[in-house]
């Protein structure tokens, strides 16, 4: 029946659909003058996370995300590059000064902090928050090689 009605109307094509124009909201840049930097430096990788005072992440970088692979991820140079990139991203949000919290035993601890200062961000304080066991867990048995 529907085909008969369409052919009776002269075989006209279906009416044109008017597509909805999507309106994208412009992404707001947070303006954060003071923030926190969390540097997690393990033996295998270094992760630099920059947050505001409430803990909301502004930017982050890790040595692995920059393309370093294998044992090169744990080097001070890789940590320096990660901190530099994260700091440049955070400066776009108006970040000028930070407090630094460092955790972990890795070799990229100091170089990450130096890179932050070199990127033009004022480092107000540095706190080491590496977890230290108070003789909690029993260590694994000694390796026999």
Please outline what is shown here.
By secondary structure, the chain is α/β, with parallel strands linked by helices.
**Radius of gyration, whole Å:** 27 Å
Number of strands: 5
Strand order of the largest sheet: 3-2-1-4-5
Biggest beta sheet attributes: 5 strands, mixed
Task: Average the pLDDT over all residues and give the rounded result.
Answer: 88
Residue stretches low in confidence (pLDDT < 50, at least 5 long) are none
N-C termini distance: 85 Å
Helix tally?
A: 3
The helix content is 10-25%
Helix/sheet category:
alpha/beta
Q: Roughly what fraction of the amino acids lie in strands? A: 15-25%
- Coarse morphology: elongated
H/E series: HEEEHEHE
What would your notes on this structure say?
This protein has a five-stranded mixed β-sheet with strand order 3-2-1-4-5, covered by helices on one side. It is built from three helices and five strands. With 145 residues, it is of the alpha/beta class. The longest helix has 16 residues, at 76-91. It is elongated, with a radius of gyration of 27 Å.
């Amino acid at each position: 029946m529907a085909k008969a009605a369409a052919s009776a109307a002269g075989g006209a094509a279906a009416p044109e659909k008017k597509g909805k124009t999507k309106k994208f909201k412009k992404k707001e840049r947070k303006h954060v003058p003071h923030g926190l930097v969390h540097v997690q430096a393990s033996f295998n990788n270094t992760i630099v996370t920059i947050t505001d005072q409430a803990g909301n992440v502004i930017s982050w970088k890790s040595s692995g995300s920059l393309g370093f692979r294998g044992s090169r991820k744990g080097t001070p140079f890789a940590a320096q590059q990660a901190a530099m990139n994260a700091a440049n991203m955070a400066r776009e949000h108006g970040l000028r000064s930070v407090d630094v919290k460092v955790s972990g035993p890795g070799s990229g601890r100091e170089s990450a902090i130096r890179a932050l200062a070199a990127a033009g961000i004022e480092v107000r304080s540095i706190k080491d928050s590496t977890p230290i066991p108070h003789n909690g867990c029993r260590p694994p048995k000694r390796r026999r090689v």
